[in-house]
Structures are given as C-alpha cells and as structure tokens.
Amino acid sequence: MIFVDVLAGGVRGGTAILYAALGETLAERAGVINLGTEGSMLTGALAAYAVTAGTGDPWAGVLAGACAGALLAAVHAFTVLSRGANQLATGLVVLFLGAGLTSMFGAAYVGRAISPFQPYPIPGLSRIPWAGPILFDHDPLVYASYLLAPALWWLLFRSRWGLVVRSAGERPAVLATYGHSPLLVRYLAVVGGGLLAGIGGAHLSTAYANAWFENMTAGRGFIAVALVIFAAWHPLRAVGGAYLFGAALALSPALQARGYGFNQFALDALPYLVTIAALIVLGRRQTGAAPEDLSRVFQLTPTR
Amino acid sequence: MKRLVAVTACAVLLTACATNTTSSSKTSESAPGTGGTKIGFIFVGPKDDYGYNQAAYEGSQAVAKAYPDLEVLTAENVPEDDNAARVMEGMVRKGAKIIFATSYGHRDPALKVAAANPDVVVLQQGNIVDGPMPPNFGTYFGTVYEPVYLAGIVAGKATRSNKLGYVYAFPISQTLDNINAFQLGAASVNPAAKTYVVNTSNWCDPAKQAEAAKSLLSQGVDVISQHQDCTATVIRATEAAGAYTVGYHADASPLAPKGWLTGSEWDWGPLYTKMIQTVVAGQFTGSPYNANFRVGLKTGDNPFVQSPYGPTVDGATKKLVDDAKARISKDGSPFLGPVVDQAGTVRVPAGTVPDYKTIESIDYFVGGVVGKIPAS
Question: From the CA of B30, how many Å to the nearest CA of chain A?
Fold first, then answer.
C-alpha cells in the first residue's frame, strides 16, 4: 500500500521537524523568534551522534543532543534578550555558528559506527491494519513526540505556567506588573525551544538516518520555523504540518521504488511547494493569531 | 570552511611561488619525468572524505612507500581552475617531475602546466583529452562497473524475491553504468532478477537515503546497493531489515556483519606505482600511459577492486564470479553485446564491445531495471 508507506514515512521523517517546531512554538509564544533552530538541530545531531558513538547508549546521546541544542539557543537568547540585538539577524548568525562548529568538530565522526535507536513495534497496536504501520512501528523518540505535543498544548493553554509564557509573548509589561520577570520567562522559553530542536537533530542522526554528515538537517530547521506560523503557534497543528512535510519527502522514493516515473525535480521541490502554498493560503488568517509582542519583531521595533 | 582552508593554502603557495624566482630548466635533453626528487599529487577535496579523494590520497601514500627515495607532495582542496595550475607549478619548482592531477576538472590546468614544463609528466585522473596527446601528458581511469557487475552476480544469486535495489544520487553516465552493470551481472545468473532504482538528488543526504532504503525494502527488495558519497545510512537500514548489502567506495562489512555480500572499492596504489615506474625509466612518451588510458580486468591494475565476500556467499557463487572475471578479462567488458534497453531496443549489437567513450556517455537503463531516468 503506497499510502501506508508514504504516511509511515511522513511520521518517521516528520518527527525531527516536529520536535523543532514544538520548540519554536514555545519560544515564539514567549515572544522570541529563533531562526537559529536549524543550528540547534545540527549541534543536537552531532552531539547525540558523538555521545552515542562514545557511550554506546543512544539515550545518553539524546541527552547530549538536547543540551547542545539548548546551549546554542542560549547564545541566541543572550544576544537578543540581554544585548538587545535584532532577533532575525541574530538567529541567522547563530545558525551559521552551529553549522560551522558542527562542520569542524563533526569531521571526525563522519563514517563512525554507532548503535542507534531500534524501531520498537508496540505490541498489539502495531498489528492494526494501516494505523499500525503508520503510527506504531517506530523508534522510541517518535512515541515520545506523540506525548510531547499534547503535553506542550496542555502546558501552554491549560496551565498557569503557560499563561505566564503566553503573557510574555503578548504583553510583557502586564506580566511584569504581576511580579514575573518577562526576561527570565523568555530565556527559559528560548533555551527550552533549542533543547527540543536538539532532540529533533538527535532523532535525525541516531534514529532516522543513523549517520552524521555535515549539514545533514538540510533546511529542516527552517521548515520548522515556517510550520510554527502555518500552525498558528499551536502545538497540535504543528503535528499535522510536520507529518505533511515528511509525507511529501517520502512520496518521491515511494513512487520510484514502484517504478513510477514522475518529474523527479518537481517531486524534490514538492515539500517546499506544499509549505509555501500552506503559508500563502493560511498566511493572512494566521497573522491575527501571532503573539502580539512577536509581531513587533517583524515591524522592526526593538522588543522590550 | 573548506573553501577558506583552500584559499589560505593557495595564498601560502602563491607567496612561496613568488619568492622563488629561479625558473625550472625547460631544455632538458632527457626524457620527461626523469631526474626528479619529488612527486606531486593534487586533490579537489579533503584527504579524509571517506570517498574519492581519500582513495586517491591513500594511493599517493602507497607510492610514498614504494618509492622511499622520492618525496611525495600532496595538496588538498585544490579548486578546478587556474589555482590548480599555480599549485602544480609550485610543486614543479620544488623539484617534482611527475604530477598527478586527480580530479576530473583538473584537466585544463594540468594541460597548461604540461605545456609550460616539457620535462614534467602530468597525469590526469578521470577525464579525456580529445585530439592530439602532448608527449608528456596522459589521462587514466579505471572501470568501476566491472566489480559492480561481479557484485551483481553475487546479488542475483543471493536474492530470494528477485528484487534488487539501487539507491543512486544523480542520473549521470557513471551512475547509469553502475546500475546497468549491476543488473546485467544479476541477470546473467538469475534471469528473473530485476533492479529497482531510487534516486536522492544528492550525493549525501542521509535522511533521504533512509527513506529511499525504507521504500525499497517495503517493496520486498532483499539486496540493496548504492552509488552515494556517504554510504552508512543505507547499509544500516538494509542490515536492520535483514536484507543483503552490496557496498560501494569502501569495505563496509563491519556495518553489515550478517548481510554483507561484496562490493566495489578503490585501490589506486598499484596503478600509480606502475605508471611512475614507466616514467622514471624514461619510457613514458609513446607508452600506453601517454594516452587516454583506461584500465580494467583485461589490462590489469584496475583501481576498482571487488571487496571481500561476506559470510553467506557460497563457493558456487564465487565460482560464477571467477568465471565472469575470466570472461571479462578475455572479452574486455561487462557490456559485451547484445545490450538491450528498457524499451527493448538493442543498444550494443551482439558480439560488440563498446569503447570507453561510448560507455562513459551512456544515457539509458538496460532491460530489467525498474524505474525511469528522471527527465531534466
């Protein structure tokens, strides 16, 4: 069944993007856009791979990947929050910092062997026709993301903690009058976002591709940032967007493996066309959903 | 980053050249390439790329071992433009009389250096010189599709589903040759075998490779080979699915202890050494190397060799491979006609061996390959 293959590939290939998109949702809800998400994914991918190669334990690798992603995001947080630099420019610089550092330190790990995450079919559930192979025949990081998306939704929209985060993104001055520090909240949100992006990178290198190679994220971090807008800063909608992108990536090999000849280059462009199309269709509607203080970033006024 | 290193390296070399104003003697009576104290190698990429450049670098180190009295100079990340000519000129000034320009795009600067230094032999890897060959120049390359054909035989015997998979990067003739040779090898021992192809439009995108391997495996493919720069992802996915692996570039059997069949890998040392032997003996001009030299099983010293066998390959299969080796050594090519394309058109008439130029400009899949060449 080709559509089972494509959808299963969509879940598998979309998971890294999903982690990054959830992390970026958190940061943007607090009023900070981080274009360096791609960099956090790269550092996460390399750190996870290196530690997995060293310890033999992919879980230790994920921990290292999360820390590396968080560390790079902390550079972004410090620069834009404590030094007042432009968020968009800083994000790009942080991305290139991550790309350069991983290119330099990663050379030693190209071609190294690791013992990666193994797929773990969930007993019973994985036997359900269609849904089983699509949803329940994956590695543990995929399952963890199933829990993470609703958990983040609950935290953001149903908990007091989430109210504080969202207030930081809407009216930080009001938050301050209630005795909270918008600066601290934003720091935590940006670093937490980088942490999730790092786990996304770790999924790529230690569960999905099982290899490290220079610039292996190939733009997935940017797709994640686009998805956050596409999903109207909503964690559950980000799930759909990430899997849609993953499925678009999985379509080309699934067709080819069956001997169908389509215009290859159009198929390669499809994931990006889908993303652009979604942004065009949803764009105007979504801008209303943007956290108020985040909009100021795009109006080029300094954040408070 | 790489570019920065390359630029710095070039700048350093340029200053070195500028300060050294003594011109090399260009009126030597002796044969070109003799009397040198050094041998120069230039590489287009880093010497540790786990692929093309590393293989060439390892070849240069084999030369250093074989000729302890000759110093081997190497330069990495040499771009395929006039900078390459400057790097080579710098090596000539340091006393190199033999230069290996190891990338396809190094041909034109290499020709320039050869023209300016008649006493130096310049050998260029992978490209072709059309028209008259200068007396101190030659191109050389191996025939990678020969070991790929042999690996195809092993794959054809190993498969149970009769479905073989091939993950490739771009539809260029080198890749198409390999896929065709793989299928022809498999079909020669198992007429029911078919090769399913998936391209990734990238020499190294591990995530795309993972998806390509998965989609082939889910179609029941049970042997996978590839033409990619980084190979670990596909091999791990294949091994994890319990399918067989045919390698490329290097012996990756540690990654697939159970499913490893065989593969193709590089070994430039013997060919480099032989060519140098001819040059230092003063016999280069007019020798087979003073031409567009292509090596294969027929000539010997093919820098593409078959990787060691995996544990499941039985004696009968190895015998079939040995027979095919003997046949190719006699006939000269895995593409001995008749070769028929997917549409059933005869592309190589029966009994004909296509020349290297024809093979290096191939643009079709042979019959038995499942998949289409992407339209450009």
Answer: 45
